[in-house]
Description:
The protein is mainly α. Helix content is 63%, strand content 0%. The protein is built from 16 helices and no strands. The chain has helices at residues 2-27, 39-51, 81-95, 122-128, 133-139, 145-168, 179-188, 199-248, 254-280, 287-295, 299-306, 311-328, 334-359, 364-385, 392-416, 424-440. The longest helix is centred in the middle third of the chain and has 50 residues, at 199-248. It is elongated, with a radius of gyration of 35 Å.
Amino acid sequence: MARKHNVSLWTLVLLLVAVLSVNVVTAGPTPAPRGGSTRTSLRSSSSSSLSTPSTATSKSFLSFGQFKKNPKSSPPVPDSVTQLARDVQTVLEDLRSEKYDPTVSASFQGTTLPTFAITWNHDLWERHNSRWRMIAYFLFWPQSALFRAVQPQLWTLLLWTTLVVLVQSPVTSFPPFLAPVLTPLFASLQWTQKVSVPMTSLGLISSFVASLLALRTNQGMARLLEARQAFGKVVLYTRDMASVVRHFIYDKDPQLALKLARHLATFSWLLKHFLRGTKMSLGNKDEDIIHTMIGQYQPEDAHYIQRQRKPPVAVLMRLRQALTQLEQDHLLSTAEALAMDHLISHMDLAIMTTERIVASPIPPLFTTHGCRFMVLYLMILPLALKSQLQGAGLFLTVGVVGYAMLGLEEISHLMEQPFRVAPLYHLCKNSMTDVANAFCLAPPDNLSTGRLHDETRYVPEVEPTTYAKPGQGFFVEDNY
C-alpha cells in the first residue's frame, strides 16, 4: 500500500510539472517593466532574426528600398522618363529659376562687371575681350565687389593719415568750443613732430610685404582652380554615370535605372550644400529638390539621405549597393560592373577633394604674419611720406597704395574659401540637365541591327528639351 501511494504521489507531481511547463510556453516571455532595460530582449530577437536565412530581400532589392514582403512599406510609385523630365523641369524652372545664385552676394553676380561666380558663355567672353573694358572698369569701380569689401579698412587708413597730419602739424588755433580739449592734447604731442621715417627704411619692409602678399595670392589662386576643377569633375562624372546607367541597366530594369538617375540628378545639389553649409545657403537645405526628385517616389531613400551627416556619400552608398545587387543577380557583365565602380570611385574622390579644400585652409600662421606686416607698413607709410608730400597728394598716394595692398589681401581671402564664390549654382543646373539628357533624349537608331528605339521610353520628340529652354537663365557651355 505504501508503494502504491508513493507511485500515485510521483504521478501527481509529474502531471503538475507538465501543466506548469505548458503554461509558461504558451504565455511567452514576460514584458519588460516600463522604463526598464530592453537590451536583452532586443539582442535575443536580433540574434534570432540573423540566424534565420531571409529570402525576402534577395530578389526584391531591385525595388530599391521597397521590400515586397514588408506589409508596412508603401507600394512603389511607378516612374517614367516623361515624369523624370517633368520633375527636372520643375526644379530648373520653378524651384531654382533664378538666373544668378541667390545665396551669393549681389556684388558677385556679374550684372555690371564680369565675375567668376557664374559660368561664362560666348557673350561674356566678348565683353571681357572688348577694347572698351578699361572704361567699364573705371565707370563701375564703385560697384565692384572688391571696392565694397575693402572700404572699412581703407577709410580707417585715411583716418589714420588725417590724425598723423594733424598731430605733426604746428596747429595753434582751434575752434572755441574745442580749444579747452585740443590745446593741451596737441601740446602734449609736440614731440611727435620730430618723428620721421626715411623712405629707404620703408623700402626694406615693402619688398618683404609684397613677397608675402604675392605668395599668399598664388596659394589662394591655386585653391580656387583646384576647387573649380574638382566640382567640374562632378558634372562630368554624373553625366558619365547617367549614360552608363541608361545603357547598362535601363533595358533590364527601367524602374531601378530611373531611381538611380534621380539620385544622380540630386548629387551635385547635395554636394553644394555640404560644401557651403546651412548659413551661407540661407537655411535652404535643398529639401524641396530632394522631395521633388526622390521623396515622392522613394520616401525611404529621401529620409535616408536627409538624416546622413554627409548626404553626397549617402547617394554613393545607394549606387554601390545597387551595383552589388546587380552583380549578384548576374544582370551586369564584369566590364559593365567595373565601369560603374570606376565612376563611383571617381565621384567619391571628388567629394574627398572638395572636403579637403574646405577643411584645410592656408596655414593661419603664415596668413597672420603677412597681415601684421602689411598693417605696420600702412601705418608707417604716412609718417614716411609726410616730409615729401602735402595735402591731397599725401592722401591720394596713401589711398592708392592702401587699396592695392588691402585689395590683394581681400582677394586672397576670397580665393582661400573658393566654394563661396565658385559657380556651384550653375554647375548644379548643368549636372542635372546632363543627367536628364542621358535618359530623355533618344540617340540615333542602332546602325548595326537596324532596330528602332522604343519611343515609349523617351520623351516625345516634339519638345525634347522642356527643362532647358533657350534663354532660361543658366549657361551650359562650361561643364568642366
